Here is the input.
Amino acid sequence: MMIMMIAAGGSVQAEATNRIVAIVNNEIITFHELEKAGRIFKLSEMEKGKQEETQKQILFQLIDQKLVDNQIKRLGVQISSEEVDKAVARIKEDQKLNSSEDFSAVLNREGLSEAEFRNKIKEQILRFRLISREIGSKIIIPEDRIREYYQNHQIQFRKIEGVHLAHIFLPLSNDTPSEEIEKQKKKAEEVWERLRKGEDFAELARKFSKDPSAAQGGDMGMFVFEEIDPLLRGEISKLKPGEFSSVLQTPTGWQIVKLVKFQGSKELSFDEVKGQIQEQLFQEEVDQRFVQWLQKLKERSYIQILL
Here is the structure.
């Protein structure tokens, strides 16, 4: 892999938005593309050193995407507009965006036009097909590996009707400055460390949690397990009654969740979860091999960074 690093003086703000920041084989990445990709990170609110480091990481991601997209073109991977239509329709249905006004409002919040959104979906599907063709088609997960995983992680495979939860919650809003986000995260980690050392969960919830449940020691009551956010379900399923999670980031703040008790819990058999485990192990293998595949692709590519 040929990578050339060229330092450029002056502030980012003073550079023209069409300045080339990287060359990948015969294609370019402009500062405008980099700026657009970085909007979600609120770079302007970061300290200069962290801003520059984050910007470089975003650029490396864009380079990776460019390399993958080059392979898509080289190998002739394609998708029809009808397939994109169906994918967009599924997203609208999953997100319960029942009207064009709701859909437009979500796109406006993300700073996207409908054409840009459709193009993003198209790119995602094409990349998925490329990875499936180049990597996924070569992976076989043997049954003995699936069974071994089941035996070592049986605590994760339970059918649960309900859960009694408590939590410690430090809220954030969409316009919370990045410095405050980090401050709240640090405070949540300090609370978690005190829990780890044996301090009482309810007392710490009363003292630190910024949720109405704080008055009850963070007790949130019973929940139907299947109605809980999938990411949180995954965390809860790893816990035993009385245990608490790591510090979790949610769209609305930092959270530490305690499992008080299960209701209607039973162990699932190997046959019931075999497909789920196979899918998980397959994806882990794909992720690992993708890193190796991408590295080999970089080694035989010309990459020049001008940031």
